[in-house]
Structure to design on (203 residues):
């Protein structure tokens, strides 16, 4: 059983999808010990509270010292024995401090096929570029912006009449599937990272 901390900043639909899949038994050997948010008004916090999951909120507004902020997170997580941090719509850049404290133990979901369209507004970037296919990526987090080793990706088509909203919704559906799949593999000890490559080991 792995103990996870899910980091959110807003809506929290990826967190909710993980939670539902754990409850349904689809996502096995995985426990969400705590939900962390940098935003006290994050909607996802309500889902956590309803499910009886502990929450930690450290407001990041006006916190310009990122290292000091991440040290506070590390201290706050200490009592939970966290194996893995799952960034799920966590909108703050994390520092080396946190990356090193949880080396190869932080994963993120991004709404594009990395390395295309990193950073903010990935769906709009894809639309503006005119790609015909986009999707989502679950990846390990290193010190860069959406640059760590890729665990898995899901694709979706881009249609001529897509808006940012319609495309985002199509991608989000796949995100909810992809994150649980990636976490299942991690929890089963089936991910082997060598440099940039993540090998999925046989059962
Ligand atoms: C998702 O599109 C995720 O890929 C991105 O931020 C969004 C968060 O959505 N990093 P939610 O808060 O999980 O609903």
């Amino acid at each position: 059983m792995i103990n996870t901390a899910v980091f959110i900043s807003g809506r929290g639909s990826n967190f909710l999808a993980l939670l539902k899949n754990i409850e349904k038994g689809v996502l096995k050997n995985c426990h969400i010990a705590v939900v962390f948010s940098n935003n006290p008004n994050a909607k996802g916090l309500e889902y956590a509270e309803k499910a009886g999951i502990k929450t930690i909120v450290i407001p990041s507004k006006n916190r310009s010292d990122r290292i000091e902020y991440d040290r506070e997170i590390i201290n706050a997580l200490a009592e939970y024995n966290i194996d893995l941090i799952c960034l799920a719509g966590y909108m703050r850049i994390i520092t080396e401090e946190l990356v090193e404290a949880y080396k190869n133990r932080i994963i993120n979901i991004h709404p594009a096929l990395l390395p295309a369209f990193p950073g903010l507004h990935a769906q709009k970037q894809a639309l503006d570029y005119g790609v015909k296919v986009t999707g989502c990526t679950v990846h390990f987090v290193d010190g860069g912006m959406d640059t760590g080793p890729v665990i898995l990706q899901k694709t979706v088509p881009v249609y001529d009449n897509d808006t940012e909203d319609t495309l985002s919704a199509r991608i989000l559906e796949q995100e909810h599937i992809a994150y649980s799949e990636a976490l299942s593999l991690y929890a089963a000890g089936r991910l082997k990272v060598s440099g940039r490559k993540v090998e999925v080991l046989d059962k």
Notes: The CA atoms of residues 59 and 201 lie 39 Å apart. Residues 8, 10-14, 88-89, 109-111, 172, 175 surround 5-O-phosphono-beta-D-ribofuranosylamine (CB under 6 Å). DSSP finds six helices and nine strands in the chain.
